[in-house]
Design goal:
alpha+beta; Cytochrome p450; 5-stranded mixed β-sheet; 18 helices; binds protoporphyrin IX containing FE
Amino acid sequence: MSTNAAGLIARTPKNLLDRRVADPYPYFAWLRQHAPVSAERKAKGMTVWQIARYEDVDALIADGRLSKRPDRVAHYVAGPPGLNRHLVHSDPPDHTRLRAVVNTAFIPRRVVALEPVIRTAAEELLDRLDGRVRFDVVGDFAGPLTFRVICRILGVPDAMNTPDLRELLLATVMPTGPHATREGVERTNRELYAFLTSLVAHKRTAGAEETEETDLLGALVHACDGSDILTREELLSTAYLLLLVGHDTTLNLIGNGTLALLQHPDQAKRLDAEPDLIGPAVEELLRFDAPVRDATFRAAAEPVEVGGHTIAPGDVVSLLIGSANRDPAKFDQPDVLDLSRTPNQHLSFGRGPHFCIGAALARLEGRIAFPLLLERFGQVRLAVPAEALTWRPTRVMRGLASLPLERY
Ligand code: HEM
């Protein structure tokens, strides 16, 4: 038994479907209640399942029967050709090997050592906004900050860390717009491939000016050249993955979280007055408006029973993290922002073997960024009505294209 797309879309209230990108939460609430496990039929007879309840998302996100191998899911989420041999699209034993190579760079000791780097970068970016009446939290602060940090960890030279590179990376996950035409996709992929190739070539010849905290790419090149741990395709794919998800996630945490604080001034005041609240506050901001709205795609490697439905081998599965995080069966008053919420078992970083490798880094960036924003911005408000804010229509992420604020 399955709810097919035609049936589901016909039954879903149109206003919820239309507003899905700007505000997915009423749609998610409807799904949890009326179609917690639902199938959509896409082109070429492929079936994509959406899973909306916490209990099911929590179980399936760590379930090894759902595969992430590129030959199983990449036809749906193609990604740049030649650049999708990475952690997100792999199963054991490849996944275990790839994860071990990058994991050491994100262990707590190395992440903590980056605190001064992150703080200095954040303060420098905020200094530039001093005296400006109007500015964009996403474009002027969150984007450049998170990109600088991941570039620093990988050891990307400053001259190569440009706004154009950021645009190029973000373009690879935009399903619509000028980059999504056939020529646009080909051009983006060509330019990205050329960039990554020259970056790797640079790392091979550059001297060891980096420290162990800031030369992950050097370590990856070594794992590729010095031993047989990584193939060249895996090396380029991993560099692409880390540059992308190392910032187009925390960027959304800072953007979505700042918006949530602006819309809940009592909570923002509380955080300003109680600095020790920052740990649980970051967790609640992660839960309340999940920066990665849906888990990355999986495909069933064998039949999987869920909620009275059978997901057939080959079917694609989309786990709605943003919906699980607002499930009233798991959280008291899930639509309320409560910065002191404990416990807070949100699924914003996933769970199981694919649990986010950058979670400690993202949390640290959030713990530095939010108090600095509160302290430095003083009296600010949205410079446009909330309904006029633009959300990027990406496949699995949830983030604002810009967050314009003005001082008053
Ligand atoms: C607030 C920021 C972030 C959020 C919400 C987030 C969320 C997630 C989620 C939900 C997953 C699991 C996806 C799945 O199972 O389908 C994941 C995996 C991953 N994340 Fe993050 N992430 C964030 C920041 C970062 C950062 C800063 C990095 C730095 C490199 C990073 C690197 C990764 C990698 C490499 C994976 C794949 C792990 C694997 O497949 O084994 N993430 N992330």
